[in-house]
């Protein structure tokens, strides 16, 4: 997502290597030929990798004692030491590694210290330098900087970084992977209290308990410019969700919200959904792996019906069931949003929701790129309904996943016939269902000219063979009754 602050994504940038350079070249080739099978991109990758490997061999390696300790990525504005192995950093290494930050001619605006674990001596070196350049900083990544440190030392280190960066005017802040908890959040009090212009905040895998969530709300003076908020993999629960909801209500410009794997139940889900309804500029919403249940699903449907800008919706493993699923599908059908990605895997969805899902899919046919309804119970009836919807002209559709849905051969064939000729289509996944051996061959025959568009079919059960036996037994029973 672009903004006036530049690309608002993680600033962790790994050092260029022969692999990454070749990958970039291959990616550029693939972008030139989006409808190809990727063979030319693979050839470019192989060619570029070979060239770079030859250069490395010709150049040889320097003796270890002649090598300088230097940051993995330094550009005119970005200073990143996150590359390489995850490791402790001592004071001497910190002095050498962070030396470019002291150069008055360099005006770094983005720094990333992630992947290095700071003890007190190294933190003293780092924070002394940071306090001198904080006025020029706009993006700071302090994720994973106290790994495996004892809690008292870790908290003290976080306080040192917080104090050093107090009153900086940041647009981006990443404090993920630090097992913060409430103590860790409050260790960053000086920094958080001074931030009124944050555009992007990451607190993933950070031990955000209910009390920690409340502390964040208490400490941040304003979130009225916030566009990206990520809370993935925390232990917030319902009480934490209520606190986060207050944060969201003050974030009217929010475009990208992630609160996945945070142990939120129905009550917290309802509170969160109501808050999400106030963020009418939302584009991406990720609530996966929580225990919302049907009632929170209905509340969420009321919220997303208001979001005309919504493009990416990740709602897998929320226990939505048919009630929540139907409500959400109907809301999306009647909304002005141009949904590109819809993920609703693992929600106990049956064929009772198929009609609403099919109608939603048909209405959004001009924008949808990915449909994931895997690990549900749609069965043949649901698969056929969705397959019929997919027969329409879908100009952007790339991926359809209905794996693990107890689908038999008729449903799988309907899906296959619906997507096989589509312009941009890349993958149909119907594995983990109940296709017979004959059904598998029939689906493969449909894709005979496009074999790479069909996912594996190696995990199917008794399928139609069982159906055929059951049908014969019923016929026998009827004959006996006569």
Automatic annotation (TrEMBL):
InterPro entries: Leu-rich_rpt, LRR_dom_sf, RanGAP1/2, WPP_dom, WPP_sf. The keyword ATP-binding does not apply. It comes from the Eukaryota. Residues 21-66 form the WPP domain. Signal peptide: none annotated. Keywords: Cytoplasm, Nucleus. GO terms for cellular component: cytoplasm; nucleus. One of its GO terms (molecular function) is GTPase activator activity. It is found in: Cytoplasm; Nucleus. This is WPP domain, Leucine-rich repeat domain, L domain-like protein.
């Amino acid at each position: 997502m672009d903004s006036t602050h530049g690309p608002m994504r993680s600033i962790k940038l790994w050092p260029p290597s022969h692999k990454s350079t070749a990958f970039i070249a291959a990616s550029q080739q693939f972008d030139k030929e989006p409808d190809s099978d990727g063979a030319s991109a693979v050839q470019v990758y192989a060619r570029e990798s070979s060239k770079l490997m030859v250069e490395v061999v010709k150049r040889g390696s320097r003796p270890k004692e002649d090598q300088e300790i230097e940051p993995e990525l330094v550009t005119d504005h970005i200073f990143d030491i996150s590359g390489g192995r995850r490791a402790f950093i001592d004071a001497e290494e910190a002095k050498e590694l962070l030396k470019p930050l002291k150069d008055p001619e360099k005006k770094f605006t983005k720094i990333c210290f992630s992947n290095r674990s700071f003890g007190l001596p190294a933190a003293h070196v780092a924070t002394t330098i940071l306090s001198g350049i904080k006025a020029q900083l706009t993006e700071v990544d302090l994720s994973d900087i106290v790994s495996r440190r004892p809690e008292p030392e870790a908290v003290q280190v976080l306080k040192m970084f917080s104090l050093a960066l107090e009153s900086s005017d940041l647009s981006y802040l990443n404090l993920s992977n630090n097992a913060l908890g409430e103590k860790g959040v409050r260790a960053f009090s000086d920094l958080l209290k001074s931030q009124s212009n944050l555009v992007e905040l990451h607190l993933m895998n950070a031990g955000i308990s209910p009390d920690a969530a409340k502390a964040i709300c208490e400490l941040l003076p304003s979130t009225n410019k916030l566009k990206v908020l990520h809370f993935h993999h925390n232990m917030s629960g319902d009480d934490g969700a209520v606190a986060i909801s207050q944060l969201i209500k003050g974030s009217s410009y929010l475009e990208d919200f992630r609160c996945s794997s945070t142990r939120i139940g129905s009550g917290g889900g309802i509170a969160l959904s109501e808050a999400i309804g106030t963020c009418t500029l939302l584009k991406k919403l990720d609530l996966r792996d929580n225990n919302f249940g049907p009632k929170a699903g209905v509340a969420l449907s009321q919220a997303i019906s208001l979001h005309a800008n919504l493009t990416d919706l990740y709602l897998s493993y929320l226990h939505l069931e048919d009630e929540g699923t139907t409500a959400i599908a109907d809301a999306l059908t009647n909304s002005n949003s141009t949904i590109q990605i819809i993920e609703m895997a693992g929600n106990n969805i049956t064929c009772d929701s198929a009609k609403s899902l099919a109608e939603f899919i048909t209405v959004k046919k001009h924008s949808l790129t990915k449909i994931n309804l895997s690990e549900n119970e749609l069965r043949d009836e649901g698969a056929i309904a969705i397959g019929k919807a997919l027969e329409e002209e879908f100009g952007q559709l790339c991926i359809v996943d209905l794996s693990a849905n107890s689908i038999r051969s008729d449903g799988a064939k309907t899906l296959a016939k619906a997507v096989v000729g589509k312009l941009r289509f890349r993958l149909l996944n119907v594995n983990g269902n109940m296709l017979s051996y004959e059904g598998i061959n029939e689906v493969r025959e449909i894709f005979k000219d496009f074999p790479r568009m069909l996912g594996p079919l190696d995990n199917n059960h008794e399928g139609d063979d069982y159906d055929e036996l059951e049908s014969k037994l019923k016929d026998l029973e009827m004959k006996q009754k006569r």
